[in-house]
Amino acid sequence: MLSSKERLLTVLKGEKVDRPPVICTGGMMNAATVEIMDKTGHTLPEAHSDSQLMADLAADIYEQTGFENIGIPFCMTVEAEILGSEVTYGTLACEPKITKEVFATASDVTIRDIDDMLGSGRVGTVVEAVGILAKRYPNVPIIGNLTGPISTAASLVDPVSLLKELRRKPEDCHKVLEYVTQLLIAFAKKMIANGATVIAISDPTATGEILGPKNFRDFALPYINRIADAVHEENVPILLHICGNMNAVRSLIAEIRSDAISTDAIVNLRELKNHIPKLTTMGNVSTYLLEFGTSANVGNQVRRLVKDGVNIISPACGLSTSTSLKLIRTMTDAVKEG
Questions:
Q1: What SS3 state is found at 203?
Q2: Is the peptide bond before 45 cis (omega within 30 degrees of 0)?
Q3: What is the pLDDT of residue 1?
Q4: What distance in Å separates the CA atoms of residue 85 and residue 206, rounded to the nearest whole number?
Q5: What 8-state DSSP symbol labels residue 318?
Q6: Are 34 and 59 spatial neighbours (Cβ–Cβ below 8 Å)?
Q7: Is 75 left (phi over 0), alpha (psi -120 to 50) or beta?
Q8: 8 A C-beta contact, residue 119 and residue 189
Q9: Kind and range of the H or E run holding 8
């Protein structure tokens, strides 16, 4: 009988297992629902900045939902905060948000010391929580989450300005992306050193619909691959979630050096796998269905994804905090029961 860690790592090596793992990575795609927090008493926003509480809440999610991993943090603002942007931690039911980017344009960005930034903000909280969880759950994959390079750049620089400057001032944008990529690699290595068994990247701004194929190829792909290569140097696999419709960048997906690609519900993973046979696919249970559907709807979609040969079953995007635990359990049970 495979442990959940063994099953996920085996799949990420491209090898066959008894059934797909069913996971929820954390970060953008976390399952810190109000129902779980009310039930356990480990709550947000307090858990964003307390390593023990973060670990306890992540463990609650694992124990309550049936997901076969533990993932932290519970937001996409850790990097933005240490880069100097203004962040609000939200409430029990509302995730943290960036309220003001520190720079108006890519040309304005000043480069700060990476080590100094890694000693500030919530980086230490996340890294300590990884260590607590790795010791508590040695047979469960601990997933450390990064905000992708384009989205991190768009949390440092006003995103509307940044997207315009990709075309008008590409050299300035490359400097910003180089800067944030170095930060993301260093953050990933800290999590790995403390016990993270997998790194996940979510880059919601790096969609084909927002960037288009040329900008995706020139500005997203090289920096995502830089992070993937650095994580692989640590002998750790990496997952990448791409939001939206992937048709515009479909021809570039095979060039991404992550160990699995997670997609939005709009993407047909069976067709994507047929298009790129070596691709390890992940997803893509509708989060709308998980919030508003029925047990029958959710069970049927999960079984179809398993039948279609999706390698890792997971939510298609971030779960609403009002998602019911019952439907999450329906999802995870459907995978395990076959």
A1: coil
A2: yes
A3: 86
A4: 20
A5: P
A6: no
A7: beta
A8: no
A9: helix 4-12
Confidence of residue 131 (pLDDT cuts 50, 70, 90): very high
Q: Residue 284 is encoded by which pair of tokens?
A: 């893509």
Q: Helix (H) and strand (E) counts for the chain?
A: 15, 9
Q: Dig out the tokens for 301 from the structure.
A: 């979609």
* pLDDT at 319 > cutoff 90: yes
256-274 per-position pLDDT tens digit: 999 999 999 999 999 999 9
Task: Give ranges for CATH 3.20.20.210 in the chain.
Answer: 4-9+27-258
R_g (Cα) of the chain, nearest Å: 19
Residue 135: which H helix or E strand, with range?
helix 123-136
How many Å apart are CA 327 and CA 43, to the nearest integer? 21
Q: What architecture is domain 4-9+27-258?
A: Alpha-Beta Barrel (3.20)
Interatomic CA distance for residues 288 and 78, integer angstroms: 26
The sign of the CA dihedral 262, 267, 270, 274 is: negative
Q: If pLDDT is split at 50, 70 and 90, which confidence band does 338 have?
A: confident
Give ∠ CA 228-87-131 in degrees, rounded to 5.
50
